[in-house]
């Protein structure tokens, strides 16, 4: 899928030529309004879980379904995004996705029970399934490959602002208004974002595809649901071992059938053949492991601060703001690191340091000064975000044409599955260690996600030393 080069696209290019508002800045920022909503929503819900659980009279474990319902819906439906974008146009699909997400947000705010909240999160998932991958398609197709590092940096900037704005806003809303407003704030953001996309993002060329891969869609969905079910139940924890082994074998069988179908289909719903590019393959594996760990951290830290250490939502938001400020700092640090160290060395360095910093929150106690917690989370977030910027950019260094859409779909599938797995892994380990009200239980949970981060570090090693050299020296802001 390539840019049309139409009048609207030319207008943006001319308006930005020679000035600050260049294409590699304008298009990523406008498209990232969707990512802003997605991350704002996720960080807000994680912060508000204890309050919403008390409101509905349920446990954190029961309410966790509101988190996993969204990520599972996105993971199941995201394979359709590439086909829809190619068939009906990326900009049109992107705008519809944003409208669905905004509608789902309104329904979340109006929910009167946990089942209604879960159903509304599923509706949000219909929009989220298309927003992120189609947004990536628009970004990669609209920005020159040598400018992709800069494009990705500007694309992540609004998304980084969301966690900065989210925690204090959530804390204020919970303490002085109502938790329902954490969903209603998506409405003005979404409307402004849709107007900006319609105005500044040019249509991309549509591709007439032979037909929708319905068998592949069903098999992909079945594989994702089966895998997430095993994670949700702790691999059928509490059941007899023969049943647990049969369950794992069943997931493997469904996955094998799907992969066989995907390799034979003329236009598969998710084309794994694009993984022949080593940069995409190893970056995807490594970032997937890191995102599992990040999903666990997103759940653990707010619970530790509020339930383990007794902080109010507003007090806990200070630590979450610090983490977001660290991510914002990476926006300026990462391009310098890429230019000086290269992609592989920077990713190895950031990943290794992240392993150590992931273990530090396990030592937090009621006597730990909040300034120390903030300093740790600033460093942790800055280094991890630098790793993600390098890894996300490197994933697209070798893909071209229609492969961009397939790569974006695979990236989005792995991203959503990883977050869901992270939520569930953190919950299972936390419950096994004594529950969220026991501060010592968090030690085991942080240890588990640190091990995953270490595995992600090892996955980077097969990359050649000078990978991504064609983009390295263009990594400036």
TrEMBL record:
It is found in: Cell membrane. SUPFAM superfamilies: MFS general substrate transporter. Keywords: Cell membrane, Membrane, Transmembrane, Transmembrane helix, Transport. The chain crosses the membrane at residues 26-53, 65-86, 93-112, 118-141, 153-174, 180-202, 214-235, 241-259, 280-304, 316-334, 346-364, 370-389, 409-430, 442-464. GO terms for molecular function: transmembrane transporter activity. Residues 27-465 form the Major facilitator superfamily (MFS) profile domain. Gene3D superfamilies: MFS general substrate transporter like domains, Multidrug resistance protein D. GO terms for cellular component: plasma membrane. It is a multi-pass membrane protein. Its main location: membrane. Signal peptide: none annotated. PANTHER family: BLR6921 PROTEIN, MAJOR FACILITATOR SUPERFAMILY MULTIDRUG TRANSPORTER MFSC. This is MFS transporter. The lineage of its organism: Bacteria, Pseudomonadati, Pseudomonadota, Alphaproteobacteria, Sphingomonadales.
